[in-house]
């Protein structure tokens, strides 16, 4: 996080199919090696010295990272808020706006399919639901990286995505609520596919080569303004247990105070929101969703687990 927050930008490259995202090489202040070549950038990235600079509108990803840590999930990549001044970056990145920079994990596993490279494995909705059934064997024909993912990972993902209302992974088609006409799932005519569950696929299902049994949560900006009456419970479908540590934290009544304590570390984000007073509305929304989730767990008689059951 210190490298992301204060490292010198020494190189940059565009991320294919993500026009407003730059991957940058970072060097600790005081290192006098100067700017890096593209070849050096690749080496720096494989050494873990790179980050992805995203849009100002993705700043909620920083809060999502802190939520991940406070809940003990530890599945999101480190993220900080930062203002950039490097001469290597386009002006739109150095105009004083606050942007999130996310650590670039060098060993994320991607499919070789150019149309599906944001997944470590191809997984359809029906396949996913079948896999969640207790005591079911692995579905026939389901092979590859997903077969190594621990069962408890899907519970962590569902809990995290519900609190943030991240729909892109488990419900990019907006099947779990009535979307507004301006929603991407409407503009791209994805919502129409809800009539045929066999066509629905999950996206951003990623693991690292060094830990193939653990999911990595990316693109976690979610929807801080998503209305309570439209909360997407489809994100929880098929999940019958949740991680005990995360649930205990939600039950403690201290979620907002724990998040404030964690967020205080990110000075740029903290000061840009005017400290605790400015952040509280966002945290109140997450806390309200947490209480709704706890009620759902109780009403559905769901359980908690200590480890990661397969």
TrEMBL record:
Q: Which UniProt keywords apply?
A: Golgi apparatus, Membrane
Q: Name one GO cellular component term.
A: Golgi apparatus
Q: Which regions span the lipid bilayer?
A: none
Keyword Membrane set for record: yes
Subcellular location, record wording: Endomembrane system; Golgi apparatus
Q: Which domain of life is it from?
A: Eukaryota
Q: Which InterPro entries match?
A: FAM198
Q: Which family does it belong to?
A: Belongs to the GASK family.
- State the protein's name: Golgi associated kinase 1A
Native organism: Accipiter nisus
Starting at the broadest rank, the lineage of the source organism is: Eukaryota, Metazoa, Chordata, Craniata, Vertebrata
């Amino acid at each position: 996080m210190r490298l992301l927050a204060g490292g010198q930008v020494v190189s940059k490259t565009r991320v294919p199919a993500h026009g407003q995202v730059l991957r940058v090489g970072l060097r600790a202040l005081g290192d006098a090696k100067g700017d890096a070549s593209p070849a050096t950038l690749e080496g720096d990235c494989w050494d873990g010295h790179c980050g992805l600079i995203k849009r100002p509108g993705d700043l909620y990803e920083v809060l999502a990272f802190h939520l991940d840590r406070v809940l003990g999930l530890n599945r999101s990549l480190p993220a900080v808020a930062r203002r950039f001044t490097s001469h290597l970056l386009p002006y739109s990145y150095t105009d004083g706006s606050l942007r999130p920079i996310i650590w670039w994990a060098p060993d994320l596993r991607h499919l070789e399919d150019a149309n599906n490279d944001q997944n470590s494995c191809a997984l359809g909705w029906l396949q996913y639901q079948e896999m969640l059934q207790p005591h079911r064997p692995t579905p026939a024909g389901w092979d590859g990286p997903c077969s190594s993912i621990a069962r408890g990972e899907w519970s962590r993902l569902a809990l995290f995505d519900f609190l943030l209302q991240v729909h892109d992974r488990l419900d990019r088609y907006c099947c779990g609520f009535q979307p507004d006409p301006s929603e991407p799932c409407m503009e791209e005519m994805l919502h129409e596919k809800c009539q045929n569950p066999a066509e629905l696929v999950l996206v951003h299902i990623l693991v690292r080569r060094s830990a193939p049994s653990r999911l990595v949560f990316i693109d976690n900006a979610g929807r801080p303004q998503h209305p309570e009456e439209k909360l997407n419970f489809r994100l929880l479908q098929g999940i019958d247990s949740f991680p005990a540590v995360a649930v205990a934290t939600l039950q403690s009544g201290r979620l907002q105070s724990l998040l404030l304590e964690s967020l205080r570390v990110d000075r740029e984000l903290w000061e840009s929101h005017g400290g605790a007073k400015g952040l509280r509305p966002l945290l109140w929304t997450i806390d309200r969703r947490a209480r709704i989730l706890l009620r759902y767990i109780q009403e559905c008689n769901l359980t908690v687990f200590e480890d990661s059951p397969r």
